[in-house]
Amino acid sequence: MDKFCEDRVKVPFGTKHLDATLCTPSSVKHPLTAVILTHGAGGDMNFKHLVSLAHALASNGFLCLRFTCKGLNLAYRVKAYHAVWNYLKSLQKFTIKHIFVGGRSMGCRAAAAVARQLSDESEDAVQGVISLSFPLHPPGQTDAHRQRSEDLRGLPEHMPLLFVSGTEDNMCDRGLFDGMIKEIKAQVEVFWLNGGSHGLKVKGRSEESVLDEVNLQVITWICKLREID
């Protein structure tokens, strides 16, 4: 028996719709915590890492809504993320009290921007940000790190922020990353995947074992924050 249910949904976005998938836990009748996820510059919501994390979250009692937005303009991505946020809040059959936002690569840049904007409106709107393979700079172009980390530096002090990055990520220079962390006011936790690339692949390890490790880090972090509340 599956530990979750999965339904394709259409999220209103101006005159268009965004494709999304809602994963709901079978073991929890009234989930109180939800996570929104989106993909990087390539692919879509069916990227294996996002699917794996969504299923793991739902299997552990959390609602997860992941969506596709293929626009490469960050501002457009942020608008799409807001539309998904509003859609989740409008689902009357759920009483969601805690919402985490996240994504991988460009998707987590959009999530950070949304968290910053929503926190300006309400202190407790976003419970935390999940950043998978944050793209601090394009490969070999480290000068972009200040601009790309602007929203992270703008997150408020109370905001929990989880980074999951590979030690061999060519879009995340370790020295620049460590320097950025010192400037962030938010409550930062970092998990370095040993040998991991930007795609969180590790030579000599199966993709499934890596995904299980990453999923466990994310779920443990969320559960720890829920216990604090």
From TrEMBL:
InterPro entries: AB_hydrolase_fold, KANL3/Tex30_Abhydrolase, NSL3/Tex30. It comes from the Eukaryota. Residues 33-213 form the KANL3/Tex30 alpha/beta hydrolase-like domain. It holds the Pfam family Abhydrolase_11. This is Testis-expressed protein 30.
